[in-house]
Amino acid sequence: MPFCARRVRAAFTSALVVIVLFGAVAYAQTNPYREIAGWAKAPEGRPWGAMASVDVDRQGNIWVLERCGANSCIGSTLGPVLKFDPSGKLLTSFGAGVFAFPHGIHVDRDGNVWATDAAGQGGKGHIVVKFSPQGKVLLTLGKAGVAGSGPDTLNEPAAVVTAPNGDIFVADGHGVNSNLRIAKFSKDGKFIKAWGRKGTGRGEFMGLHAIAIDSKGRIFVGDRPNNRIQIFDQEGTFLDEWRQFGRPSGIYIDKNDTMYVADPQSNVKLNKGFKRGIYVGSARDGKVTVFIPTEQPKTDDEDTYGMEGAAADGQGNVYGAETLAGKRARKFVKN
Question: Considering only CA atoms, which of 296, 163, 173, 274 is closest in space to residue 223?
Answer without folding.
Answer: 173
